[in-house]
Design goal:
By secondary structure, the chain is mostly helical. It has three helices and no strands. Helix 1 packs across helix 3. The C terminus is likely disordered.
Length: about 80
């Protein structure tokens, strides 16, 4: 019984470590893509993609940008 518990604890510890590394690697890749899109479309060089710049994006780049920014933002209603 002790072996099963120890094996379970080791498996959870290893899985958690691998998941953390994968998440960190994915975050780095997302930041890299974000920087590439800003370099490509930030025409006024303010370090951001504004509405006019976003409208000029190629459809595949727009889809990437939407995924990186958590989807399309909705306007606040007053």
């Amino acid at each position: 019984m002790k072996r099963i518990i120890i094996a379970s604890i080791v498996a959870v510890a290893l899985t958690t470590g691998f998941a953390a590394k994968a998440a960190e690697k994915g975050k780095g890749k997302m930041e890299e893509v974000r920087k590439e899109l800003i370099e490509k479309y930030d025409t006024n060089k303010d370090g951001k993609i504004d509405k006019d710049e976003a409208e000029k994006m190629a459809p595949e780049d727009k889809a990437k940008w939407d995924r990186l920014s958590g989807g399309k933002k909705k306007k606040k209603s007053e």
